[in-house]
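If you are new to this repository, start here. Below is one unmodified record pulled from the training split, so you can see the exact layout before writing a loader.
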Amino acid sequence: MRWWKLLGLAAFVGVAATGVAVARAERRRRAYTPEEIRERLHARLAEADRGSGA
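And here is the target side for that same chain:
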């Protein structure tokens, strides 16, 4: 019985840690200004164009 309690607690901690990681990534994503996002997208497009030989 004790193992099940430990397993349940470990699962709860894992879910909580995943939630924290997702929230942190979302905050980081929202911290970009629209200009920064535009610049990053343009850079990714230019890199993709170079990679495809177009």
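Two things worth knowing about this chain: The chain has a mean pLDDT of 90. Residues 32 and 38 are 10 Å apart (CA to CA).
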